[in-house]
Amino acid sequence: MLQHLIRALLVLTALASVGAAAARADETTAETFDRGPFWFRSVTAEGDHVTGLRPFWDAVRDDEGQLISASVLYPLWHREVAPAAEVSRWSFFNLINYERNDATGTTRFDAWPFYFSRQTDTDSSDDYRAVFPIYGDVPQRFGQDRLNWVFFPLYGRFEKNGAVTTTTPWPFIKTITGEGHRGFEVWPLGGHRESTMHESAESFALWPLYYRKRTGPADNPTSLQTGFLPLYALDRSPGYRSETYLWPFFGYVDRTEPYQYHARHYFWPLWVQGRGDDRYVNRWAPFYSHSIRRGYDKTWVMWPLWRQATWHDANLQHERRQFLYFLYHSTVQTSLHNPDAAPARKTHLWPFFSSWDNGAGRKQVQAFSPVEVFFPHNERVRRLWTPLFNVYRYNRDDSEDVVEHSVLWNLIKWSRRPGERAHRVSLLGPLLRLRTAPGEKSFTLFGDQLGLEYDDGLRARTPFTSSSSTASP
Fold this sequence. Notes:
By secondary structure, the chain is mostly beta strands. The strands form 2 sheets. It has a 33-stranded antiparallel beta sheet, covered by helices on one side. The termini are close together. Mean pLDDT is about 85; it is low at about 1-35 and about 460-473.
C-alpha cells in the first residue's frame, strides 16, 4: 500500500510542479550548491553573514551586524564599507562613484566623464570641483601632477615632473614650459621639446614618419629612439639594441644586460624567433606561436582558436587550456610540494556547464553556466548570478560521504549517503520528502510542521502535535 501511495503522490507532485514556484533554500559554506534561485542566506569562511534576493540585492554583515557591503542589481550599484579604516564607498556601474574617508575627512564624488570632485572637512589646496569639458582644475589625478581645462579641447594645461604643457587646441598646438623645460609642437607637422633638468629631448616631423627621442648628451646620448618610417627604426640603450628595416619586414633585438636575449623578426609582430636567458620565442602567427618568459610557457595554435599556458608560483603548478578564449576554458593546479596529490581542476564549456574538483574529494558540476567563466574571481557575481542558471547541479563531498543532485533550482533534489546506504528525495522543496534505506522506507508530505508522515505508520502532523493520528499502512 505504501508503494502505491508514494507513486500517487509522485504523480500529483509532478503535475503540481508545472505552476509551482521554486522553494527558498538557505545557503551554508559547507553546501555551496544548496542554493535557491532567489532568496538566500549563507555564512562565509570568515564568519560574515550574507543575505540576498537574486539578482536584485545582497548584503554582507559581520558577526556584530555591521554592514560590510551591499549591492542592488550588481554591478549596477554596490557599496563597500571598511569600518576599521573608516572608509565607505559606493558606485553606480563604476561610472558614478562616491567615497568617504572619515579618518582624513575627505569626500570624493565622480560622475564619469562629466563631473569630478574632492572635498575635505577643512580647507585644502587639493580640493576641487571640475565639470568636463567646461572647466577643471584637478591636482594629482589622471596621471598628472595638475590638470586644467577650459572648454576642452580648446584649452588644456598638463603639469608633470616640472614640465607644463599648454595645448590650444588639443592635440594640435602645444607649448612646453617650466623650469628646465621648453618646446613647441604643431601636430602632426612637427615639433621639438627638451629638458635640461632630465637631459632629454624629443622631436618629430610629419608624425609618425620621423621621430627622435634621446636621453643624455646630444653628441653621445645614453639612450636613443629614432626612425624614418617605414625605411628604418633604431632603439638603443645600455645593453640593448634593436633595428628594423623596411618596417615591419626585417629587424632584430640584441640584449646583453640585465639578461641575454637575441631575436629576429619578420613582419613584426607576426613572425619572431628569439632565444635568451629564461626566454624563448618561436612565433609564426597566426598559425603557431610558442614562448617562454620567466617560467611562463604559452602556446597558440591558429590564433585565437587554441591557447595553452603553464606557469607556477611558490606552491602550485598551473596549466590552462582555452578554445576561442572562453568557449572552452580549463585550469589544472598541481601541488609542487606534494606532486603525488590529486590535482585541482576547473572546467567551463560555455554556456552549457562548469565543473570544479578541488582534488581533495569535493566535486561540483552546474548546467547551465553562462557567467562563471567571465568572472572567475568575483564572489558577488558568483553569489548573485551563477545560481540563477542552476537547471542542474551535482555535488560530491567525499569527506562527508555525500552525493547530491538537484534539478530546477532544488525543486527536485536527490541525495545519497553511501555510509548509510540511504537515499533521500525532495520534490517541490519541502512539499514531499522521501527516504529509502535497506529495510526502511519513509516519506513526509507538506513539511515537518503540517502534513503527513510515514515511517512505521501513517501520522498527521500539525503545529501543535507531531503525531495526532496513526494508521496502519
